[in-house]
Design a protein that fits this description.
single chain, 115 residues, alpha+beta, two-stranded antiparallel ribbon, 10% strand, globular
Length: 115
């Protein structure tokens, strides 16, 4: 994201954990159709933020599932460049992009973690 973020109180602990585990990047995969929006805005938005901004993005089905689960105001990323879901999509020939960026969002206030 382009705007400055507040850093969490436990940021240094998380930075040390990332360093110890040699996790230098975060990964996000998305349908290829989403790339023009991401490249234009230089940001990845949650589905709720897309709605607030009035941005129409094709192929939102999996994100709609997130809204039903109560996590529609988040962007999912991984410290690994491989997910089972991505593997399935690749086998089925559904075009997706894998985006790599820094681990800085890990230390932003409001970041949550899950398995």
């Amino acid at each position: 994201m382009t705007n400055a973020r507040r850093v969490r109180g436990d940021a240094e602990r998380l930075r040390q954990l990332l360093k110890a585990r040699r996790m230098t990047d975060l990964w996000h995969f998305t349908p290829l159709a989403h790339l023009p929006c991401i490249l234009y805005h230089k940001a990845i938005f949650s589905i709720e933020e897309l709605d607030r901004l009035g941005l129409a993005v094709p192929g939102r089905q999996s994100r709609e599932d997130d809204i039903r689960l109560g996590i529609g105001n988040s962007v999912k990323v991984s410290t690994m460049a491989y997910w089972d879901m991505l593997s399935r999509l690749m086998r089925e020939g559904i075009p997706h992009a894998l985006i790599r960026f820094s681990t800085e969002p890990v230390v932003w206030e409001g970041t949550t973690f899950g398995d």
